[in-house]
Automatic annotation (TrEMBL):
Domain DUF4832: 432-644
N-terminal signal peptide: 1-36
The keyword Signal belongs to this UniProt entry's keyword annotation: yes
Organism: Paenibacillus lautus
Name assigned to this protein: DUF4832 domain-containing protein
Length: 660
């Protein structure tokens, strides 16, 4: 008969009362810490219910779990279309990523053991050589595989593991770059073989997961701030501000005008933050200038060329947006006035509750996209739509942003479109995020000249300068962008098949938190693309799920020690180090609380465990709710939803009940 594993009925002693049988709820439930796992290797994963995932991914291998008893380490992979001929588990058993085999595709490995199909191998090489000693193959009672489930039991004595040991685990399906757990470039998740608890029984609470895209801050869609009519939920907007509208007369920075035209008050009332881009040249269908008239006239009076009016007839810039004015970026006067304008923006919005979450370093080129392409006209004309400046000039513009916003990373962060030296090596020690304005288009992504290729390997830019790589910037900073090709490109990128598959591939590789202004925010809810819209929104950025909370049943001492496991099922970390708090509540009021040491900016894809120590010595006897919340430091209120049930009225989440 199949073992029931952790699906146990529980009894708790409450003071002098006799045992009370707890009902096991269908959504979230309590369980004691079992002394041993009860797993049967038979291809049925139901006995793994309630055991949290170590890692998840969107490929054929979707869930990785681990547990143990006194004899075996048990591993489970669930998925759809798993290979039934080739699959491998990779185990780092010594806790040192610098020893053992350095497996390709993950960020940190150091593998001592490889289980390839049913064959177990111990590594004997120098870290890079493929050198393994075969151990005994696992019998069918210890290894079962199908296209949806892989279960195995590996003896702890073989692996040299015992109580208190830790093991890092990865799974590779059919030697695939994409179909793996964890995803590419991520570290292997760690499973710890906990020793028996000497202090009495532990309560474990498993909140039910919500399989929904959440409308959380700093992720998802970022449509234009100019409109307020968007059916799809979103928490970001894009505001492209031209210099001409921002500084209509010299020294007069018209914040009221730009905030009114971009509806800042409206967005603030709805908890929506702004992504700002400062623009000097925004092509349209009519002749115009986007630098102020006073600036144009001053440059002319100083004997400096103010720039070049253009009309592109090659078709390279697209119909209807091919006319404008490219400023003379090399003008020392324009550079000096640009510095003052950027400083004014930074100073005005330097506050913890700033409406601006991200600033795209723009200014240069058409649409502030760091290019003035096409360079060559239909008759061979050079600098056909204006001259783009060399590094010695463009770096000055970038430096203006770095100097102005260097001390504001707790509420406003900088991103740049092109990988340049200043993106990671500058006088302020800032690491810049990046954004891809042609997200979803494969050639523009990772062809030899593509955005992703350039960020990872470096590249030669449009005017023949060699630019360095800004590889894996998303490990510490945010990645963003917008869909390519207007409505056509966006729809193609969201349509099931090769288009959406390519979008998901780029999401896994470049880890965007948001996309806009070209985004599906304006599409009706329930439109034919809604399923893919939701899938992408959930995977983009961060997506936090509380897997488990554990705490002692008995009141021992003057504090309650709580451990909470949270899984990030998104591709990116949270951009700001907002506090994560554990609370005790009674009658809806917080009676004890502690800010944990969690740094959400380090919470990349995978599991993270936080602990708290809540003072209980002054609390009267009674039953209390345990809760967890991520607080907005500007309001000190819960501001981030977890993908779980049991959301409380103020936005915190229940993670258990405790009786003193």
């Amino acid at each position: 008969m199949k073992a029931w594993g952790i699906k146990l009925k529980l009894t708790f002693t409450v003071f002098a009362m006799t045992a009370i049988l707890l009902t096991v709820f269908p959504f979230s439930f309590f369980a004691p810490t079992a002394e041993a796992a009860s797993i049967v290797i038979d291809g049925d994963s139901s006995d793994w219910d309630g055991i949290p995932a170590l890692s998840t991914n969107t490929g054929t291998a979707s869930v990785l779990k681990a547990t143990h008893d006194t004899s075996n380490l048990y591993l489970l992979v669930e998925g759809s279309g798993l290979s039934t001929t080739m699959g491998s588990f990779w185990l780092n058993t010594d806790g040192n990523a610098s020893t053992g085999y350095q497996a390709f595709g993950w960020s940190a490995t150091g593998v001592e053991w490889l289980l390839e199909n049913q064959s177990l191998y111990r590594y004997s090489g120098n870290g890079s050589s493929w050198s393994w000693n075969a151990s005994s193959p696992l019998p069918s009672s210890q290894y079962v595989r199908s296209s949806s489930v892989i279960e195995t039991a590996i003896p702890l004595t073989t692996l040299g593991l015992g109580a208190g040991s830790s093991v890092s685990i990865g799974y590779l399906d059919n030697n695939s770059d994409m179909h793996r757990l964890p995803a590419q470039n991520q570290p292997l998740p760690v499973y710890t073989l906990q020793a028996d608890n000497p202090g009495g029984h532990m309560i474990e609470f498993y909140p039910a997961e919500l399989n929904d895209p959440l409308n959380n801050p700093f992720k998802g869609w970022a449509p234009s701030a100019k409109s307020t009519d968007y059916p799809q939920p979103h928490r970001l907007v894009y505001a492209g501000v031209t210099w001409k509208e921002f500084e209509p007369t010299k020294g007069n920075y018209d914040f009221n005008a730009i905030e009114a035209s971009n509806h800042f008050d409206y967005w603030k009332s709805r908890g929506v933050k702004v992504i700002l881009r400062f623009i000097l040249d925004s092509p349209s269908g009519v002749a115009h200038r986007d630098i102020p008239d006073w600036l144009y006239n001053d440059m002319t009076s100083l004997g400096q060329s103010p720039g070049k009016a253009y009309r592109d007839d090659t078709g390279g810039m697209g119909a209807g947006n091919n006319t404008g004015f490219s400023p003379n970026y090399s003008s020392d006067y324009l550079i000096a006035r640009h510095k003052l304008a950027i400083e004014a923006i930074a100073n005005h919005y330097d506050s913890p509750d700033s409406p601006i979450a991200f600033v795209q370093i723009g200014s240069l080129g058409h649409w502030a996209e760091f290019h003035t392409w096409p360079y060559v006209g239909p008759n061979g004309e050079s600098n056909y739509t204006g001259a783009f400046p060399p590094n010695s000039i463009s770096n000055q513009y970038i430096q203006h942003y770095i100097d102005a916003f260097a001390d504001q990373e707790d509420h406003t962060q900088l991103l740049i479109r092109r990988s340049v030296e200043l993106a990671k090596n500058n006088n302020k020690g800032l690491i810049l995020g990046m954004y891809n304005d042609v997200f979803g288009d494969q050639p523009s992504f990772d062809s030899e000249w593509g955005w992703y290729t350039g960020t990872q390997n470096g590249y030669w830019d449009d005017i023949g300068q060699q630019q360095p790589a800004h590889a894996n910037f998303w490990d510490t900073r945010v990645s963003g962008g917008e869909f390519y090709g207007g409505a056509y490109g966006m729809n193609a990128a969201l349509t099931s098949g090769s288009g959406f598959n390519e979008t998901l591939r780029q999401t896994e590789l470049s880890k965007p938190s948001w996309l806009g202004p070209n985004s599906p925010a304006s599409l009706a809810v329930g439109n034919p693309l809604q399923g893919n819209i939701d899938t992408l929104k959930k995977r983009m950025g961060y997506h936090f799920v509380v897997n488990k909370a554990a705490y002692p049943q008995e009141n021992i001492g003057s504090t309650l020690e709580v451990s909470v496991t949270v899984e990030n099922k998104g591709v990116q970390h949270f951009p700001f180090n907002w506090p994560l708090e554990i609370q005790l509540r009674s009658g809806g009021q917080i009676v004890a609380r502690q800010t944990t040491s969690a740094d959400l900016t380090t919470w990349r894809t995978g599991q993270h465990t936080v602990t708290g120590s809540l003072p209980t010595n002054t609390l009267p006897s009674g039953t209390y709710e345990l809760a967890i919340s991520i607080l907005d430091p500007s309001t000190n209120q819960p501001a981030v939803d977890f993908a779980n049930t049991n959301r409380l009225s103020d936005g915190a989440y229940k993670i258990g009940s405790w009786t003193k």
